[in-house]
Design goal:
Elements: E1 9-10, H1 26-38, E2 44-46, H2 58-72, E3 78-81, H3 87-99, E4 104-107, E5 111-112, E6 116-117, H4 120-131, E7 137-141, H5 151-160, E8 164-169, H6 174-185, E9 191-194, H7 201-206, E10 211-212, H8 219-230, H9 234-255, H10 258-266, H11 284-297
Parallel strand pairs: 1-10, 2-3, 3-4, 4-7, 7-8, 8-9, 9-10
Antiparallel strand pairs: 5-6
Helix pairs in contact: 1-2, 3-4, 5-6, 8-9, 9-11, 10-11
Amino acid sequence: MTTTETYRGVWPVAPTPFLDNGALDLEGMRRVLDCMIDQGVDGLCILANYSEQFLLADEERETLTRLCLEHLDGRVPAIVTCSHFSTGIVVERVQQAKALGAAMVMLMPPYHGALLKGTEEQTFDQFARAAEVGLPIMVQDAPLAGVHLSVPFLARMAKELGPVSYFKIEMPGTADKLRALIRAGGSSIIGPFDGEEAITLMADLDAGATGTMSSALLPDLIKPVVQAHAAGNRDEAARQYERILPLINYENRQCGLRACKTVMKEGGVITSDHVRHPLTPLPPETRQGLLELARAMDPIALRWGR
């Protein structure tokens, strides 16, 4: 993949499958990636928050980075999440991602817990050092970090740090922030994306988003929305989005990252929907509600392995 290529479309987050005993399911990881390719994704992201990256040991993370990028073998471009409070660790992760063939990396601003947060200049310096590696960088602007990234600051990074050209905005008022960022950053904003399972996708596409990072639950059903909107057929995009919004809403509001694993287990993609403690399994009633909605929508993940 060249760094001059413009990435857009649907780039979901790959879940990290575990066995029932909590060990990594490496064969399941390969099946997840193959399923996502069959979902028609434009690219995908590994080791993100929806991949339970905060529950992985360093050695597991390295194993998964290598396995995923080698198994993908360039079939679709991949983003590797490399966030960490330590700038040195961030740079090492970005270097490894580049060496293994990643198309891009995603970074949150430096934070650790509720009170240890990088200032704007510390954040800028961390991104500047990561940018020296030479891969495109997607800034993840999400509530989890608890760090305020203003539009002027994001536009400054885009203008002064060439590789910092993609932005995943998933804050309250995402559409307004995307619109303001595109206006402030101009041609330096190459990839304005939304996230949060595409729960505000139509508003964000209207605001100028050219990509979305959902989960791997239903990217095959989200892609027609993005394609129709990009082709100028907003009415068709809205019709497609209205049909799938109940499932997106249920995932986002009731299940979180567990939804994709539950559907992929039901669909034979993976053998277990285990999540690592302190996360807990879906309550039976919630699981039933999720699967009822999913069966009505018939996403590929629900039948891929059957």
